[in-house]
Amino acid sequence: MSIKTSPPSKVIADIAIVGAGLVGLAAAVALHQAGFSVVLVDSKNPSKTDFSEDAWDARIYAISPKNVDWLRYLGVWPRMNQKRIGQMQAMEIFADDEKSPLKLSASDVNAEDLGAIVESKALMQALLTQVNTLAIKTLFDASCEKVVSAPQNVKLLLSNQIAIDCQLLLAADSSQSWVRKQVNFPVQKKSYEQTAIVANFRVEKPHGNIARQWFSSDLEGKNSILAWLPLPDNMISIVWSVSTKQADSLLKLSGCDFTERVKEAGGNLLGGFKLQGSLAAFPLNLQKTNNLVQDCVVLIGDAAHQVHPMAGQGVNLGFRDVVDLVEILKNKHAFQSLNDANLLRQYVRIRKADNFKMMLLTDGLYQLFESQNRVVKLARCWGFSQTKHQAVKKLLVANAVAL
Ligand SMILES: Cc1cc2nc3c(=O)[nH]c(=O)nc-3n(C[C@H](O)[C@H](O)[C@H](O)COP(=O)(O)OP(=O)(O)OC[C@H]3O[C@@H](n4cnc5c(N)ncnc54)[C@H](O)[C@@H]3O)c2cc1C
User: Fold this and answer.
1) Is residue 206 located within the same domain as residue 297?
2) Same domain, yes or no, for 112 and 128?
3) Mean pLDDT highest for which of 1-10, 65-74, 141-150?
4) Is residue 262 located within the same domain as residue 228?
5) Are residues 196 and 114 in the same domain?
6) Which of 40, 41, 151, 244 is the most exposed place for a label (fewest CB within 10 A)?
7) Which one has a higher pLDDT value, 327 or 383?
8) What share of the chain in percent tops pLDDT 70?
9) How many angstroms does the Cα of residue 21 sit away from the middle of ligand 1?
10) 19: domain range?
């Protein structure tokens, strides 16, 4: 199916995607490979990103084994420098002051690893290269002006006067989604009043390809969740989620003092640390919407859901939105249009269940650790020891591998 561009400026495609972040780019590649004509729109131009490899990107993602396989199938994974990809072979979780961690190992479920740790920029570059190689139509540096959505088709008008006519419009334009607002999707949002600080360090002792995470409280009893993710060359990437007040004071520290705090918070497990590059900080929210579809508009990625990064699942969930949507569209009957209500209902049913499971896990764990209520604290100790139980452990690992 080819895209027809007729003068003065009308673009006709099966599917338009707004947002060329990791999820929108992956959707463009997957839908094109499934035989649909696609146009990808972004108000910025991701090709202008500085992709030079020298410095390590502070934005790092844990990508699940299933999504790694999918990205390989899309021809994206081999485009990344494999020497800069970390392997997560095990996870250790420390709760409160417990000295012995809960251990989850890939070997428990006969898997090679529990996921890959990649730089955001590297994955973005690989996806963009694939988009260009497949000659997928892109309209970058183009801001959206108007969406007219009807049950049978949708029109998107850009400020440069290009009008896109398509059967489906995918909103992949971030947690602040402009498309979602235009089509009036109701959204429930909760601020965690936390900020995640990310940074990379070279460490003294071998990390052993183990991801480590500490759940504890700060002096005011607020949650502190610190993750150390293994990178190649004995480097680690950290995600430290703390109250925004605490984050503000951590961000004011010198590089040396911040490094000391990170080492101490992880019990000095990996010896000396050397900060690589700069820190970055992100406010944390939980966001969900009951409707993932309205007429011909479909939400994917952070436009559809935003979860706490403690499980490293935001982009993984977004990729799974795409996997499920492509599967549903590929298997449609010849008489069904891409925006057939039954097809889109299937998408909503499947994705709501998956999103709900992840929100329940991350938000539930957050609440469990945040609560200062004594009764809940007791239940929490009970819960954690239960978690150590072999069966639950297997379930957790299976979940991690399947994601
Ligand atoms: C600290 C931290 C750590 C994380 N770690 C992990 C992890 O380890 N694993 C994981 O899976 N997830 C992780 N996440 C979550 C992950 O970052 C997000 O889920 C993911 O980036 C969302 O991708 P997206 O493509 O949906 O949206 P975005 O990355 O937000 O991209 C949206 C795109 O839409 C474009 N856009 C916005 N508005 C418009 C508009 N009006 N018109 C046109 N284009 C527009 C933007 O320019 C952008 O290109 C983490 C998040 C945080 C904060």
Assistant:
1) no
2) no
3) 65-74
4) yes
5) yes
6) 151
7) 327
8) 89
9) 6
10) 4-50+123-188+287-365
280 with 291, same domain? no
Asked if residue 55 is part of any domain, the answer here is: no
Ligand 1: nearest atom to the Cα of 284: 53
The residues with which 10 forms a beta bridge, in sequence order, are: 6, 163
**pLDDT, averaged across the chain:** 90
Q: Which of 42, 118, 121, 147 to mutate to test the pocket of ligand 1 (most atoms within 8 A of CB)?
A: 42
Mutate to test the pocket of ligand 1, among 61, 119, 297 (most ligand atoms within 8 A of CB): 61
Number of domains in the chain: 2
pLDDT at 332 over 70: yes
- What pLDDT shows up at residue 397? 63
Cis peptide before 232 (omega within 30 of 0): no
Q: What is the pLDDT of residues 233-242, one digit of tens each?
A: 999 999 999 9
Residue 161 near residue 154 (C-beta atoms within 8 A):
no
Q: 61 with 118: CB under 8 angstroms?
A: yes
- Host H or E run for residue 127: helix 120-133
What's the CA-to-centroid distance between 64 and ligand 1, angstroms? 16
**Nearest residue (CA) to ligand 1, atom 48:** 21
What count of other Cβ atoms lies within 10 Å of the Cβ of residue 190? Answer: 12
115 with 222, same domain: the answer is yes
Please tell me the distance between residue 19's alpha carbon and the centre of ligand 1 in angstroms: 9
CA 399 to chain centroid, in Å, comes to: 16
Which residue lies with its CA nearest to atom 52 of ligand 1?
309
Residue 11 is assigned to a structural domain of this protein: yes
